[in-house]
Amino acid sequence: MPLLTLSWLVPLAGAGILLLIGNADERRSGLIRWLALVFSLVAFAVTVAVWLAFDASSSEFQLVERAAWIPAFGIEYHLGVDGISLLLVVLTGFLTPIALLSSWESVDRKVKEFSIFMLALEAAMIGVFVSLDLFLFYVFWDAMLIPMYFLIGIWGYDQRIYAAFKFMLYTMAGSVLMLVAILALAYMHSESTGSYSFDIVRLYALDIAPQTQRWLFLAFTVAFAIKVPLFPFHTWLPDAHVQAPTAGSIILAGVLLKMGTYGLVRFSFPLFPDAAVEYAPWIALLAVIGIVYGALVAMVQPDMKKLVAYSSVSHLGFVVLGICAMNEIGMQGAVYQMLAHGVSTGGLFLIVGMLSDRRHTRLIGEFGGLRNVMPRLTAAFLIITLASIGMPGLNGFIGEFLTMLGGWLWNPRYVIGAGLGVILSAVYMLWMFQRVYLGPVTNDKNAALPDLSVREWASVLPLCAMAIVMGVAPVIFTAPMGPSVKKVVERVQERRSVTVDNSFGSFGSFGSFGTSERAERVALERPEASPRAERDRSERFERERSERLERPERSERPE
């Protein structure tokens, strides 16, 4: 059974069926809501089936589906999952029904169109994570923009058009850079083998000159950095989060941002290992700046939703730091933090949306003493808040601990800066919780607010449960990702040809504090770790390329 095809085809088919149902007068909105929820639950069941069929002991791509698509250019319908993409596929299936439940009453116009865009968005997101052909990956990557653009632009708040355009322009700018790099890789494969290919497994084996790696790495990484978003490419995110409907914010924080960090792990670092080693210290520096900057800006936000949006900038900095460490511990922590952030931040946006639906405001100053009125919602928000700040026993702790440990083994200086972000996150999250929920009721409008309904329980309870399960039983999630993470790290470590100094010039005054003894020893022992070796490798590459160009054209190359 083609499970991976079903995983994205089920929600897309659901969107197509909803398209056929007439609802001009909104009389069938209830039916459409239930159908959309059923299709999303079926898609979630398929993702769980993918997990059950997955062999956690293997690092290879599994459940592979392959068929020729555009043979003349080596483009294939090629799907597969490893332990990294598997968990992100399941996360997408898990969050989409919750997002649909969150919009049950808040979205009361154009319900049919809203449901169609939500299901189409789910299909595109899953397609991104299961694609092993770069052309197919790019199709899903750009297809995701369309439903998200309309979700923000139609069902968002006052400045929704501005936020939707900003989201589209930023992401498209990065996508164009990535497209150029993808075409360059296909061309280089043609020059090397005589045929075009967008197969990521084949492209991993390309021997790319260091200077070329730098340009292609930057093209891919800028596209992914915008999506993360990494400082200073983050400015689209607060606007998109604040203006998006609750369901859009849940999906945006829970899944869409992970597409950027997933791209770094799947493409940027393993495809261009030399450039990754060279630029990793600078990317990590931007990540640490984003951690501290996002936390400081979040502290002064009067709007709960904007506070949570800036917390995403801060927390995803830990993911990027773990990736840049390029060791198993850091990379595993980065993948785990992707999952943890999707659960906890999705939960924060969900509950903030519940308060906004009741009071039609998100200003912290408008609330106070809600625990006296809404004890169940207060308890749920407390669990999600503690998970977000990395409380031991909850999901956020595992990811942050592993990323900081991996970062420390690589370069302790970054962890010192990231540690400040951990402290600040506790400050702004607990301070918000105190002002909104503790103390006496300070506004008469809050005195009669209803507590969680059955529907709201159905959406918030799975998130709270998942935060606890991920905190007390992390092996459930680390077991399938472990072999795949190890393979990615080994691919980067084995193929890189030079170990570069990461002292940042004036930062060199820190001396050996910034570099572990093991890293220094590896740099000294490796015979290729020298400028001369890099120069010889580049000359050999150019010589082989010239010889290939002198040979007659291969007959199978397309006209």
Describe what this molecule looks like in 3D:
This protein has 2 domains: 1-271, no CATH class; 297-483, no CATH class. It is mainly α and 559 residues long. Residues 497-531 and 551-559 have low confidence and may be disordered. Helix content is 72%, strand content 3%. The chain has helices spanning 3-19, 29-53, 83-102, 111-130, 134-143, 145-155, 160-193, 200-204, 210-227, 236-243, 246-271, 273-299, 304-325, 328-359, 375-388, 395-410, 412-437, 454-472, 475-495, 517-525, 531-550, and strands at residues 62-70, 75-81. Strands 1-2 form a two-stranded antiparallel ribbon. The longest helix is centred in the N-terminal third of the chain and has 34 residues, at 160-193.
What's the layout of helices and strands?
Layout: H1 3-19, H2 29-53, E1 62-70, E2 75-81, H3 83-102, H4 111-130, H5 134-143, H6 145-155, H7 160-193, H8 200-204, H9 210-227, H10 236-243, H11 246-271, H12 273-299, H13 304-325, H14 328-359, H15 375-388, H16 395-410, H17 412-437, H18 454-472, H19 475-495, H20 517-525, H21 531-550
Antiparallel strand pairs: 1-2
